[in-house]
Each structure stands twice: as structure tokens, then as C-alpha cells.
Write a structure and sequence with these properties.
Elements (H helix, E strand, L loop, with lengths): L16 E2 L18 E8 L3 E5 L5 E5 L2 E3 L14 E6 L2 E6 L15 H13 L6 E8 L1 H4 L8 H10 L5 E3 L13 E9 H10 E4 L2 E4 L1 H5 L2 E6 L4 E7 L2 E2 L5 E3 L3 H16 L6 H10 L1 E4 L2 E4 L1 H23 L7 E5 L1 H5 L11 E3 L6 H13 L10
Parallel strand pairs: 2-8, 8-10, 13-19, 19-20
Antiparallel strand pairs: 1-12, 2-3, 3-4, 5-7, 6-7, 6-9, 11-12, 13-14, 14-15, 14-16, 17-18
Length: 378
């Protein structure tokens, strides 16, 4: 497989290769005809788990799960919203649940994470299939401060998806047996760097090629995620570590602040995470059968996060005068688009920014990474 150089960027080939032509599309709704082994770009974030398939399909699933059985009997099969999975002897419920927090350092190698990833692959109608996956780690979890890779952490993340996860039969009024998705190959790259691959590898009419001008130019990627915000500056295929790193702030900080404010205002011990997410998105929360306006609380929490992000972005990138382009990606860039719109004259928000990393991970898998031959291939 391709390995990262000391600068952190796997060398890009100069030739072109045939790949499936991506096309913007809604979330996967039905099975699609595939070859035996399916390539998947997987951005397994703390707030949402996103994947991109070779036919351009996009899917985002909330990273929401908890330890234990669902405790729900589903009367109609197509109404099931919580699914159970077994890994290393523990059952997890994934879906429309009040999930356990994903905001802990070991999440990327936890059973909670594995079951959320398996569930996302199941939602993509890949049950029983063999997949090759590229996922990521935040920049500060992939590299030491001197730019050397954290080989142990990367290896742990790479190995975790190859630990068995079995879908569990609901045992309710109907039996929906599901076959697991088998992750036969898994590579890990820095998350924001994946968006750089998405930027410099172009696909037209089914043919992928390098944008040689952009490969040489200094490009910064700002990836505003759920738990972290990542910064990567790449020039001539080398990561400039003095301007790269991570800030442990993201959209989940807005959720946390809004949740605390709602608890105080309405004298509640807790607020379900799904209810908080709706409040952040719409500025309204439904409690005791009534809608309540919490838009002021949401605005205050957003402003606090934006102020922190702006200060860190200036610290990492300065005024951006020496950079050719500054690209904002991640779900936070979509949610905060109006707030970050004028930070730099040479900035842009990526198309479908929440999926930029997953697109880049898929391109890395298709164009850069050396996959093993699948024993299931014809």
C-alpha cells in the first residue's frame, strides 16, 4: 500500500486512470449493481458519519449510538429506526437513540465507533458485501507536533474496522436478518488532507487526472467538524506543519452550550440529543407539547464558536496572503457558511462541504492507494 512520506503526502501519479464518474445524488435509497469489492470513502466523524460510493452516491448518518439493547418492538418493518449490533461481546443500539457521547479520545477505535460505521454501511445497502475503505484521523491525532506520524494510533485505527461487527436480529414481530459488511481493507489518512486530494484530483467523463497547477500551489484546508477543526497547508505535495494542526472545537460545542442553556431555562436534568440537534438547526425546541423559541441561545453559542475559530484560523494562516486558495470543508463550514463568508479574499467553500473529506478519501483509494487483490474478485 502507499505510505505517507515525512511530509505526510503520498506521491501522486502523473498518469490518468479510469474511475467511475461521480454525480451529485441524494442519499442511497436502493441497491446498485457493483463489482464484488466496493470502494468506500468514509468520513467517520464525531457528529455525522459520511460515505461516498464510486457511483457518486452520498450518505450521511448521525453518529448516534449507545451501549445496550434498543428495548423497542417495531410493529412495521419499514418503520424500524433503531438497529442492534454485536462487537467484542457487547451489544450497541444505533439510530434514533439518545446516544452516548462520541467526544472522547478513544472514539475512533471503540466499539461504539465500529457499530456506527457498520450501521452506515448497512444503510448504504451494502449488507453482505466486501468493501475497501479509506477513513481519517484529525491532523493532531495523525501527527506529532514535529510532523512525524503517530504510527501506533494510525495502526489502531486501521485495525479497528477489521474487528467483527454482527447485526443482531430484532427478535420482535418480524425477523430481519442482516449480513454484516466485511471491511477487507482499511487505510487511514489525515482528515483535512483528504479534502486536498478531493481538490487536486479531478474527474471528467470517467477519467481522473491531476490539476498540476493546484498541486504546486500553496493551498490551505480548514475542516470544521463536530469535535475538532483541522488545518492543513500543502505546497508541492508537502504538508507545512507550522501552519497545520487541530483545534478541539467544532459544532458539537454549539450543541453542548445550547443543551445546557435549555436545561437551565426549563429546569430539566437533561435534553435528548436529537431534540438539541433540532433546536440548533431550527432555533425552536418542543417541550411539554409546546414549541419554544431558543434562537437567541443558538445565536449566542454559534457566535462564541465562530469567534474561537476565527482567532485560531488567523493564528494558523495569518491573513492568507501567501496562500493561493483557502478551502473550507466539513459540516461546520456548511452550517456556518454565512459567518465565515468573508474571512479571506481568496477563500472558497467546497461543493457539498460535508462530503469533501469522504470524496477525497474515495479518490485516494481509487487513484493513489495500492489496494490488495480481492479474493472475491472475478
Amino acid at each position: 500500500m502507499s505510505s505517507f512520506t515525512d511530509t505526510g503526502v503520498s506521491p501522486l501519479p502523473s498518469t490518468t486512470t479510469e474511475v467511475s464518474s461521480p454525480e451529485p445524488a441524494p442519499p442511497v435509497e436502493s441497491n446498485v449493481e457493483y463489482v464484488d469489492t466496493i470502494q468506500v470513502g468514509l468520513d467517520d466523524g464525531y457528529a455525522f458519519t459520511k460515505l461516498v460510493l464510486p457511483n457518486g452516491r452520498l450518505l450521511a448518518v448521525p453518529s448516534r449510538a449507545r451501549i445496550g439493547q434498543a428495548g423497542v418492538t417495531w410493529i412495521e418493518a419499514d418503520k424500524q429506526r433503531i438497529f442492534e449490533y454485536l462487537t467484542e461481546g457487547t451489544i450497541y443500539s444505533v439510530g434514533s437513540v439518545d446516544g452516548d457521547s462520541t467526544r472522547f479520545a478513544g472514539y475512533p477505535i471503540s466499539g461504539l465507533h465500529r457499530c456506527i460505521v457498520q450501521h452506515t454501511l448497512q444503510q448504504a445497502k451494502l449488507a453482505g458485501r466486501v468493501v475497501h475503505v479509506v477513513s481519517g484521523l484529525p491532523v493532531s491525532e495523525f501527527y506529532f507536533s514535529d510532523g512525524q506520524p503517530r504510527s501506533g494510533a494510525v495502526r489502531q485505527k486501521r485495525d479497528t474496522l477489521q474487528i467483527a461487527v454482527e447485526p443482531v436480529s430484532s427478535g420482535s414481530m418480524f425477523d430481519r436478518r442482516r449480513s454484516p459488511v466485511n471491511v477487507a481493507f482499511h487505510e487511514v489518512i489525515p482528515e483535512a488532507l483528504a479534502a486536498w486530494y478531493d481538490q487536486v484530483i479531478e474527474v471528467n467523463a470517467g477519467e481522473a487526472s491531476l490539476n498540476t497547477k493546484q498541486v504546486e500551489m500553496p493551498i490551505a484546508v480548514v475542516d470544521i467538524g463536530g469535535r475538532t477543526t483541522d488545518y492543513v497547508v500543502v505546497e508541492n505535495q508537502g504538508i507545512l506543519h507550522r501552519s497545520s494542526g487541530s483545534l478541539n472545537r467544532g459544532m458539537l460545542d454549539v450543541h453542548s452550550q445550547v443543551s445546557q442553556a435549555i436545561q437551565k431555562q426549563f429546569n430539566l436534568e437533561s435534553v435528548p440529543e436529537q431534540r438539541v440537534a433540532e433546536a440548533v438547526q431550527h432555533g425552536m425546541v418542543r417541550l411539554h407539547g409546546r414549541e419554544h423559541d431558543v434562537s437567541g441561545v443558538v445565536t449566542e453559542a454559534r457566535l462564541e464558536l465562530v469567534t474561537q475559530l476565527h482567532a485560531e484560523t488567523r493564528r494558523q494562516l495569518g491573513l492568507g496572503a501567501e496562500l493561493d486558495t483557502i478551502i473550507f470543508v466539513g459540516g461546520g463550514s456548511a452550517a456556518l457558511a454565512d459567518d465565515i463568508a468573508d474571512w479571506f479574499p481568496n477563500q472558497q467553500i467546497a461543493e457539498y462541504p460535508a462530503f469533501a473529506n469522504a470524496r477525497g478519501m474515495l479518490k485516494y483509494l481509487q487513484y493513489v492507494c495500492e489496494e490488495p487483490e480481492s479474493p472475491h474478485a472475478h
